[in-house]
């Protein structure tokens, strides 16, 4: 009885063993295949050089990205600090007239009772935020931190000097929020007025 043809080919079995099971010898086809699979030394060196170049390029990219990210973080932190300082400076500037009123009340002896406690608490709070007053009688005049509201000459000074503080200045850290308003005297005698010349 002939074998049935069911439309399927018979399975093909290939013996890919590299050693002949009968003789125990290495088959030549396997040896040839092995030799063909081993790339020449020049090809290996070229592949190694290409891989080394790609690795160097990827390393350079990563280092550049890391540097950019580090700079970005520093910039964000610097901007955050600047925005905070700007906000605090704006709030403190709005409180300067209140501090002026407290100073005038203290000068006139009106800072008593509960109002004195509130004033002390407010001054402590703004000091904690970095606000400090400046401008003393006898300070050398500095146009960067002083605003001259009055001018005169005096033989008692050797350089332009704040002889009277009309309103203290305030700064927050290195930032001047308001210059000290002062009367300035320069060395020399007071110039005679025009009315004195007319009398002569």
UniProtKB/TrEMBL annotation:
Pfam families: GrpE. Residues 55-82 form a coiled coil. This is Protein GrpE. It comes from Nonomuraea jiangxiensis. One of its GO terms (cellular component) is cytoplasm. Belongs to the GrpE family. Residues 1-46 are annotated as: Disordered. Participates actively in the response to hyperosmotic and heat shock by preventing the aggregation of stress-denatured proteins, in association with DnaK and GrpE. It is the nucleotide exchange factor for DnaK and may function as a thermosensor. Unfolded proteins bind initially to DnaJ; upon interaction with the DnaJ-bound protein, DnaK hydrolyzes its bound ATP, resulting in the formation of a stable complex. GrpE releases ADP from DnaK; ATP binding to DnaK triggers the release of the substrate protein, thus completing the reaction cycle. Keywords: Chaperone, Coiled coil, Cytoplasm, Stress response.
